[in-house]
Amino acid sequence: MSGDIPDNFKYLRVHREGKILNVEIDNPPINLITIPLLLDFINLTKWAQDDEESTVLVLRSNVEGFFIAHFDVEALLSMDSGGA
CB–CB of 24/67 below 8 Å? Predict the structure, then answer.
């Protein structure tokens, strides 16, 4: 499967240069991993595994001075632990 890069990512900027798929994380101010960013990553990997046009995926930050921070602690604390 090949085709156009999906344009529904909220926190990822994706573009192709030849066979290289460039992905920039863009969740300022520090690229905190949030549920929406995690969903973007899941959707990207689902799409990319079937993309026959790309052979390399390069992951970069679009936020100067930060690559990616930890998961949003407030989001983790607000999740239902399911009794655990």
Answer: no
Pairing, β 56-61 against β 20-25: parallel
For residue 69, the SS3 value is: coil
- pTM passes above 0.90: no
Encode pLDDT of 11-51 as tens digits.
999 999 999 999 999 999 999 999 999 999 999 999 999 99
Is the domain covering 12-78 a CATH 3.30.70.100 domain?
no
Give the 3-state secondary structure of residue 7. Answer: coil
Q: What are phi and psi of 36, to 5 degrees?
A: -60, -40
Nearest to 56 by CA among 8, 13, 19: 19
